[in-house]
Amino acid sequence: MKKVAVLVVSLCLFSINALSQVPDYSGEWTLDKHASKLFGRMASIESMSITVTQTGNELKIVTFSKRASQPQNASGEEIVTYSLDGKEIKMDINNSSFNGTIRSRVRFEGGKLNLKAERTIRTQLGEFSATTRDIWELSPDGATLKIKRETETPQETMSAEMIFHRQPAVAQAAK
C-alpha cells in the first residue's frame, strides 16, 4: 500500500513539475509574414494574429486571419482550447464559418509545445476532416514565437513555418 501511495504522490509531483516548466505564451501575437514561410492556401493570408490566454491548466488560442479572397463580412476567427495536462478536449462549433467538432490535445516536450487539433467539419457536401499539428518554440526573451505547422486533409498535406512577435502589453491595453 505504501508503494502505491508513493507512486501516486510521485506522479502528482511530476505532473505539477511538468506544468510549471511550460512557458507563459499569454498575450497578443502578430504574424511576421516576411519572416514566415507560407505555402498553398496559407500564402493568401494578408494578416494573422493570435491571442493566447494561459490560465492554470488551460491554453485558449483565438486566431484571426484575413485573406485577400475572404469576403469582407467573414470573421476569419477560430477559438481552440487545450488542456495543459494532456487531456483531450472536444468542442462543438456552430457559427457562420464553421459547423463541426474540434478535438484538441497538447504536450510539452523538449522545451516546445506540441499542439494537435482534429477538425470534423460538416457541410452541405458532407463531412470534411483536417488535422493540424503545431510545434511552438518561444525565443529565450519571450518576444518571438516560431510555429511549425503541418495540416493534413484527405486531399493534401501542407506545411508552414510562421514567425509571430508578441505585442507589448501597453499596445494590447490600448485596444
Describe the overall structure:
The protein is mainly beta and 175 residues long. The protein has one domain (24-174): Beta Barrel (Lipocalin), CATH 2.40.128. The protein has 2 helices and 10 strands, in the order αββββββββββα. The protein has helices at 2-20, 169-174; strands at 27-31, 45-55, 58-67, 77-83, 89-94, 99-109, 112-123, 126-138, 144-152, 157-166. Strands 4-3-2-1-10-9-8-7-6-5 form a 10-stranded antiparallel β-sheet, with no helix packed on it. Residues 4-19 and 171-175 have low confidence and may be disordered.
Note the topology.
Layout: H1 2-20, E1 27-31, E2 45-55, E3 58-67, E4 77-83, E5 89-94, E6 99-109, E7 112-123, E8 126-138, E9 144-152, E10 157-166, H2 169-174
Antiparallel strand pairs: 1-2, 1-10, 2-3, 3-4, 5-6, 6-7, 7-8, 8-9, 9-10
Could you name the key traits of this structure?
175 residues, 10-stranded antiparallel beta sheet, 2 helices, globular, disordered C terminus
What's this, in brief?
This protein is mainly beta and 175 residues long. It has helices spanning 2-20, 169-174, and strands at residues 27-31, 45-55, 58-67, 77-83, 89-94, 99-109, 112-123, 126-138, 144-152, 157-166. The protein starts with a helix and ends with a helix.
Which spans of ≥5 residues are poorly predicted at pLDDT below 50?
4-19, 171-175
User: End-to-end span in angstroms?
Assistant: 56 Å
> Using DSSP, what is the number of strands?
10
Largest sheet: 10 strands, antiparallel
Question: How many separate structural domains?
Answer: 1
Strand content: over 45%
Gross morphology is globular
CATH superfamily: Calycin beta-barrel core domain
Number of helices: 2
Order of helices and strands: HEEEEEEEEEEH
